[in-house]
Write a structure and sequence with these properties.
Structural class: mainly alpha
Largest sheet: none
Order of helices and strands: HHHHHH
Radius of gyration: 37 Å
Low-confidence stretches: none
Distance between the termini: 89 Å
Number of strands: 0
Number of helices: 6
Mean pLDDT: 89
Oligomer: single chain
Length: 169
């Protein structure tokens, strides 16, 4: 197989090819600039439309007794507090704990449903009523759960440095 080689290009041919490529790029850039110019001509109308929509929203909120300026100040204060080093440390602590784990939230959900249901069933209970209740399998399961949790929590408390009397320093 014979390789076909193109004849050597002269300096002028290479220069002409480069100029043609540059001309194509300039034409492309001119088209892009024309499109951009058309888009930027629409910016004031878009900004005016958004401003009108926001003004309408503020008016509707004000008609409902909502002071948007007060709400914005409160939102900025909340953002300041929520992004403080202390709040971020607390959030990191919560996120690194197991409190938001799926299994934990399931248990807490069951506890919440039980609390709501028990609110309507609760009645005074004497010593003998407590003694009878402790024979019920459901009460025994719940008591066993509470004792196991108390043991684990006690172990956790042993591993935490004790605060001085009167709280944190």
């Amino acid at each position: 197989m014979v390789a076909h080689s193109s004849p050597p290009q002269s300096h002028e041919d290479r220069l002409l090819a480069t100029l043609e490529r540059l001309e194509r790029r300039v034409e492309y850039m001119e088209g892009a600039l024309r499109r951009l110019e058309g888009a930027t001509a629409q910016v004031p109308a878009v900004v005016a439309t958004v401003a009108d929509a926001l003004d309408g929203l503020v008016e509707r909120l004000a008609a409902r007794g909502i002071d948007v300026d007060d709400r914005m100040r409160a939102l900025l204060r909340a953002a300041d507090h929520l992004t403080s080093p202390r709040a971020l440390d607390a959030l990191a602590s919560v996120l690194s704990s197991e409190i938001l784990a799926h299994q934990t939230t399931e248990v807490i959900g069951r506890m919440g449903r039980s609390i709501v249901a028990a609110e309507h069933e609760a009645r005074p209970l004497g010593a003998w009523g407590l003694w009878r209740a402790l024979r019920e399998p459901e009460v025994q399961r719940a008591a066993g759960f509470l004792i196991a949790m108390a043991r684990r929590f006690g172990e956790e408390l042993e591993s935490v440095p004790q605060l001085p009397p009167g709280g944190a320093s």
